[in-house]
Design goal:
It is built from nine helices and eight strands. It has 222 residues and is of the alpha/beta class. Bound molecules: adenosine-5'-triphosphate and magnesium ion.
């Protein structure tokens, strides 16, 4: 099956871009020419350099014009709907859908913003984008304390709309380790026996080692 995923998270800063980039690199290594799509990105120092958009463009093989990777960019560190309002900028749901359609049905990755109920515009949250684009979901979850609650709520919200979950990836995106790290995955597996849990990917400062660890954890998805 052609690997195509929507990468969401239990929260912001959990490792979605790390996971999305690793999936794209694996796709390239396996002979695909994947599309990368980060339709909404906020909290940018410079609108010309969307951090996530550029990382995904590079990971996908750098063939794609940045304008089709990254559609709506905001400086304010706010949910996209709020950032657009503050910066008096219009966004277009139709453009999100038509840009996505222009990628065709090959391999690729869409990265959301924050978690499922983050507002993208006045009418759509991230979960509505998942529903509209009809992609299987990869959920990125912290491997630290709090993740049983956040992951359970996220999986319940996806199940309520019958959205397909390809995997949950547990990631240590912070150097702090707490005693829950060793227990979270087993508890979540017991709660959701039909969901595939990957990781935990350890916290690794060195970029090369980190990239390899993410690719190892995700290799069964590509
Ligand atoms: N396993 C890891 N080891 C070390 N650093 C990590 C790891 N996972 C994530 N990070 C770091 O944590 C930060 C957040 O990760 P990332 O940008 O992937 O999160 P995100 O969910 O995409 O955030 P956003 O909601 O802003 O898009 C980044 O600086 C990233 O390099
Ligand atoms: Mg990101």
């Amino acid at each position: 099956m052609t690997p195509r995923y929507f990468v969401t998270g239990t929260d912001t800063g959990v490792g979605k871009t790390q996971v999305s980039a690793a999936l794209l690199r694996l796709m390239v290594k396996r002979g695909h020419r994947p599309f990368a799509f980060k339709p909404f990105e906020s909290g940018m120092a410079s609108l010309d350099a969307p951090g996530d958009g550029l990382a995904l463009q590079q990971a996908g093989g750098a063939w794609q014009p940045l304008e089709t990777v990254s559609l709506f960019r905001f400086k304010a560190p706010l949910a996209p709907a709020m950032a657009a309002k503050r910066e008096r900028r219009a966004t277009s749901w139709r453009a999100v859908r038509s840009t996505f359609q222009s990628f065709g049905d090959g391999a690729g990755v869409v990265e959301g913003a924050g978690g499922l109920r983050v507002p993208l515009d006045s009418r759509h949250d991230v979960i509505d984008a998942i529903e509209a684009l009809k992609l299987p979901v990869v959920v990125v979850a912290r491997s630290a304390l709090g993740t049983i609650n956040h992951t359970t709520l996220t999986l319940e919200a996806l199940a309520a709309r019958r959205l397909r979950v390809a995997a949950v990836v547990m990631v240590s995106s912070q150097p702090t380790v707490d005693p829950s790290v060793a227990l979270n995955k087993a508890e979540l597996e017991a709660r959701f026996p039909r969901v595939r849990f990957l990781g935990p990917v350890p916290f690794l400062e060195a970029a090369l080692l980190r990239a390899r660890a993410f690719e190892r954890a995700l290799s069964t998805l590509v």
